[in-house]
Amino acid sequence: MSAGTYRETLKRQGLQPFLWTQFLGAFNDNLFKMVVSLVAVRMATGEPGRDLSIVSAVFILPFILFSGYAGQLADVYSKRTVLVVTKSLEIVATALGLIAFLIGHLHLTYAVLFLFALQATFFSPAKYGILPEMLPDRDLSRANGILEMSTFVAIVVGVAAGGAMFDVWQDRLWLIGIIVMAIALIGTAVSFRIPRVRASAPGARIDFNPWREIGLGLKRLRGDRVLSLTVAGISYFWFLGALLQLVIILFGTQVMHLNDRWVGVLTAFAAIGIGAGSMAAGRLSGDKVELGLAPIGSIGMGLFAIALAHSGGSFA
Questions:
Q1: What is the rounded CA–CA span in Å between residue 106 and residue 27?
Q2: How many domains is the chain partitioned into structurally?
Q3: What's the confidence (pLDDT) of residue 222?
Q4: Element (H, E) at 196
């Protein structure tokens, strides 16, 4: 049987609304985070790196604290319901973001960034878990490739747009707040077109100690070598991606002396590479999950990280 194509996969019922929902959410998250990062750098009284670290910590904290609950909710309730509800909460976060921009309060923007990340925390397990419930197994590699590619295209556009908007409207940040809120409204409307799926464990009880659930998950991981290596690889990838984003912002402002708009463009190039790699991995995997591509990607990430470390002298 011949391998399927991306065109055929995209025709699967409900996949395109799902991808647009994810795209708009990732775009909004990264636009807002980029603007907050640039505000933090602009208002920094000491080392800008410290303020950027605070921004990153605020964005990561909800994933550490609430991922246990998020995974349980994605099992107990329909993943489509979880996606729609969390997208609706994004509207609340953007409304508060608009208020924060109107009054010009940096610490309030940190709180709003925390809410954006909290919404993403509960969105993520349902986002990844719904694909096997919507699609046949033979389409999963391509669908995941499209999902990752579209996510990083959203990051590209969101980061670049955030830098450009801040460069133009840094004295009228409320205009950015209105745009972010409008995108949240559109994304929520699109999410209602995601097809309904059944809950995978409707009778399960939610454990209010999230660490116990995480502990059980880690115990299961230890018994599955392939799955444990997969989780370790994904964790390393996101760790390096978050670190790279911080480094690029500092590299652009402190070493290359770029303005805010071009710092956004510089960050976008990293996301373009990730998106291209995601599509290539999906194509090379064909109708199966090809784990052998992961070590190749890891080697490439390491080599180019070393190259980036040695490129700073070119701008001295």
A1: 21
A2: 1
A3: 80
A4: none
